[in-house]
Every structure is written in C-alpha cells, then in structure tokens.
Please model this.
Amino acid sequence: MTDWINRWETNRIGWHAEQVNRHLIKYLDRLNLSSGDSIFVPLSGKSNDMLFLLENDINVIGVELSNIAIEQFFSENNLDYSVSEVDKFVLYEGEKIKLYCGDFFDLESKHLHHVRALYDRASLIALNEGLRQKYVKHLSDIIELDARILLLTLNYPQHQRSGPPFAVSKEEVGELFNGSFDFQELYCIDDIENEPMFQNLGVDFVEKAVYLLQKVRV
Ligand SMILES: C[S@@+](CC[C@H](N)C(=O)[O-])C[C@H]1O[C@@H](n2cnc3c(N)ncnc32)[C@H](O)[C@@H]1O
Model:
C-alpha cells in the first residue's frame, strides 16, 4: 500500500490515461445502466473514465488510497467538492460523485448504496495473486445481486516481466469469479504491437481482454 502512496507522491503514475478508455465507450451499454444509476469504480486513481461516466449521467462511487489522486481528479476537471469523514474513510463528494479515500478492503455494502454496476480498469491487474483473490471475494461480498461488472485485463507471460500490471488470464478470471458470477468474454486481442515497453523487455505477447460479469448468486 505504501508503494501506491509513494507512486502518487512522486508522480510515477504511468497507468493514468488522458483519453477515455475505448472499451468503456464501446461496452458501457452492456452494463444496462439508466440515467441516474450508480456505478462503482474500485481503485479509481484519478481516472478520466469517471468523467465520461458522469457525462453520461451515471453517478460514480469510487475508492482510492491516495488523497493526491482524488484531489487531482477534482482540480484537473474543475469540479467542486466537499470533504467529510465517514467510517474509516475521508469522503470527497462532488455533484453525482463520491470518492472514498482509504482502503478498498474497508469498504462495506452500505457505502455502495444502489450501485448497479462496476467498472474495473487497471484495478484487479494492479494486485498480486494473493490480493486478487481477496479483492474478488470482498467485491463479491459487498455488491448487490444482479450487479454487472465490466472488467478489463492484461495477460502476458508473467515470467518475462514483473507486475504491476500483473498478468491475469481468462482461466484465472473464470476461477476468481467462479460460483457467484456469470461471465462472458467480450473482447480479446494480442496487442503487443502497441506496447513498446513490453516489447523492449522481450515479452512475447500482451493479450488485452474485456469481460462482462454478473453476480447471479450470493
Ligand atoms: C494501476 S492504478 C489504476 C487506477 C485507475 N483504475 C485507472 O484506470 O487509472 C491502481 C490504483 O489503485 C490504488 N490502490 C491500490 N491498492 C488500493 C487499495 N487497497 N484501496 C484503494 N485503492 C488502492 C492505487 O493508489 C492506484 O491509484
């Protein structure tokens, strides 16, 4: 955890994208959200994808360890916010958006009131194998039945490069969410051509995948 805080303090945030993620734009409708519904963005960073969701009239609830990330999100997008303390979190609240500053694993279902969907880009894959299991178990515990998840992952030969981002295969996604979730692969392509950093390390392939999951059992 201190490593993430340190990355924000020293501005080593290479994962942050200025552009809205094209898969979110393409597959947002698969989350079946209506105007005014809420989406949960775990490990949110200062993702501009949250801005896109707000612009589509979707309320956003996020959780992020670093106050720097959250404050930059509001200031860089010229959004007003208030700050309060809620349970173990500092809550940054703007119009249609609540960002909990603290540890994802302290989040409870009461913090995700009326959340109908979840967007995970660079969150599951930010965690090592042990934490990924804990993350999915906790996620599954705190989200409502029928909630849908749009999950974006990377897969590559893990022995050729260390994470984060960590490699997460389709088999692992199936195993992690096995039991309580239906899952469907929406997209999967080897995109090594557009990953010079991976190429320089001699990585053979970088599969980018998008999954749609739905919690169907408790
Ligand atoms: C790789 S970044 C991805 C951020 C965002 N999803 C995006 O697409 O830009 C992972 C983020 O998770 C945050 N993080 C890591 N562990 C966390 C935890 N246990 N609780 C809350 N946030 C966490 C880090 O501070 C970091 O901003």
About this structure: Helices lie at 2-9, 22-27, 49-55, 67-76, 129-142, 170-176, 196-200.
